[in-house]
Amino acid sequence: MAPDRSLDHLPLVGPGTRRGGGLRPVARLEVSPHDVQRLPDDELGGHLLAGFGVTATAVETVTGGTEARVWRVGTDDGRTWAARWSLAGVPVGQHVAAAFALDCPGGGQAVPARATDGSLGYACADGTLTLTSWLDGPTAIAEPLTAPTWFALGRLVGRLHAVDPAVVPGLPVVDFTPGWWRGTFDAVERARDVPAVDDRARAVLETWDASRRRVLLVREHTERIGHRLHELQRHEPTALPMVVCHGDPHQGNVVVTGPGSVALVDWDSAVLAPAEHDLMFVLGGTYSARPVTEQDAAEFFTGYGRVDIDDDRLAYARGVRLLEDASDWARRALDPARPDEERDEAHGILRTVLGPDGLVDLVLG
């Protein structure tokens, strides 16, 4: 009998759950998210009232995944909110976003709401519900950044990197050791050694194999740099400047709120790390509406201010991003428990990451 190629053994983690060389850890799930009862739409209003004391008058689903859900919520006081439920607890990024909003009064940033008990989240439906002010405007993918908004983004990221880490207790720290991606990467590698469970899995592994040599090269190079930076961090901690980072400021997480203003959303990957962890999204760019030009970068750094980019730190940040994205999207696409359309979407993203002009090309230069 052919071995079962179910990917139940694959680590159930994904972007935003990074540790060590990646970013923040969360509690590991012991069951598939498909077996977890997610928060139903018709129960959201009751939980918002109980947890945050707000009365929802209009609810619109924005994303409806199994591990996290987002709604646009109008309330009886005329305000609009982004409600997010996820299987994880309150992300430390909520605390970063709250601190940053206080540091930028009137700066147009999304402001997390406090629950009735004073916390930034409300436990319900085996997960956590958070509430953040809604930002009107397209993302920078839908509406490419202009010179004024590149400048505004640089100024915004510069202000974030100047935030005192002491105001965000519990902020995870990058330690340059292999993160969650290593277990996921190794599980995908093991999946190559047994017969594919279906045609979708077979196609995913063909995509993986076509770029496997280059991805393994990135892994070896990233782990070697990481070891060197880890030793430097241990013996000369002041030699590695660390700042409060958003951790994932790609253009899909930048909202254009006006002709010369932008805001950052999705703080789940907030981390204390070298500035290059954020700046890599400008230096070459990932998840962009179009290639980031030298002029774009010049506008950004005019707003950001003077910075000395370290080649090793930049290469490490890019390498980790590639290893996280490639392994996680492969895991999702291989998982037969996921809906077919979700697997197909994950495979499409994997092809983009590993294909011509994708992230693997950027990392290898």
Automatic annotation (TrEMBL):
It holds the Pfam family APH. Residues 60-310 form the Aminoglycoside phosphotransferase domain. Transmembrane segments: none annotated. Signal peptide: none annotated. Keywords: Transferase. Residues 1-23 are annotated as: Disordered. GO terms for molecular function: transferase activity. This is Aminoglycoside phosphotransferase family protein. It comes from Cellulomonas rhizosphaerae.
